[in-house]
Amino acid sequence: MATIGIELPQVGESVTEAVIGKWLKQPGDTVEKFDALVEVVTDKVSMEFPAPHTGTLTSIFAAEGDTVPMGAVIAEMEVDKATAEGAASEQQAEAPAPNRVGTLIQGANVGPTGGTFKDTALEEQLANRPPQASLAPDSTPNTAQATGRVYSPVVSRLAAANGIDLATVTGTGRGGRVTKQDVQAQMATGPSTIPAPTQPLTEDSTVGEDRVIQPSPIRRMIADHMVKSVSEIPHAWSTVEVDMTGLVACRTAQRHLFLERHGADLTFLAFTAHAVARALRDNPLVNSSWEDGKICLKGRVNLGLAVAAPDGLVVPVIQDADREGISGLAQRIAPLVERARSGSLTLPDVQGGTFTLNNTGALGSVLGGAIINHPQAAIVTTESIVKRPVVIFGPGGDAIAIRSMMNICLSFDHRIIDGAEASEFMQSFKRELEAWTADSELN
Predict the structure, then answer these.
(1) Which CATH code of 3.90.1010.10, 1.10.472.10, 3.30.559.10, 3.90.800.10 fits the domain covering 220-434?
(2) Is 80 among the catalytic positions?
(3) pLDDT-wise least confident of 198-202, 366-370, 432-436
(4) First to last CA, the chain
């Protein structure tokens, strides 16, 4: 028999880490190849990771709730000698990054937010991936400290909970690394150098009249993703008012017939997705990202739709949204939103997004500034459609009329986009929305 390490596999170009949700097997359990081994949570989806081989799970290195980088060894298995030799003989090479279709622009001076993953083909691909060398339980790096030392998630949380300054702890691990045992020894023999909390903040604990709730792994991933976005992207905002009266009339007049013909509801989301996709096609700088000091103009318009799901915000993606008409988008959006809300998104459902549309109007919002979905260049929100008196300018003079009005709000990366480009995009979006009338043909 031989022991081999089990690594957390890469599951997407932009996914660099995951949270260990729940171990489905424990040390000592016999597992068959492809058995569900552990649930892992990324900022995109939750998924079950299958056992790569048949054998016995001997050690678990990453505890439930730990954040670990992709590629880290999270457990060990004992397998027969033939399996170990076969795994060792396979070439240890990282998978190539997915092809990017786009244009890179040098420099910044170009001018003015789930579901359960289940995919048999991918399970087999992941399970057959050869394991890396074994890693000690506390050697998974998490946060680089000011001292240049790197600590695992277990060590960092244990120290923070007990007021231990890790800079004062002598590491006994490999290369001087601070281990969990080192922190426990400091707790037993030395005073804390950071004031320790008087009461651990755990689920269902209370502080006075306050209740402390432990966030779910998905909520923690969303929180980390949002912090990364506002920390790395200089946000700027722009808001434009849109007259939706003609579009509302079009939807009211044709909704029933559309449902009979296409088997999908004619939603406002389908109209706004269609308008956004066309505006992005005409304003490619908004459909881009900042990558290593360069601007990457995306060659495809893959529109992310922010959907409120039970476990948190998820962003399923409509690939090549600019190639669809209203009917095509309506038929693609309906099942995608349903999978998002039911927690059944697959990994392909959330990959490759180049721009995000956030329909906060469905929640009653009339004005807001969304956080950009990192690393995209912008996100737009469509707000509530509200009837109100508006001044109408016409050849016969000004008049006041009751119109259906909506605000559209753009958050954009000011490294890439200035006010002029933002305004051009917003005006394109506005024109597309205001072009509809009650008798417009739905393509």
Answers:
(1) 3.30.559.10
(2) no
(3) 198-202
(4) 64
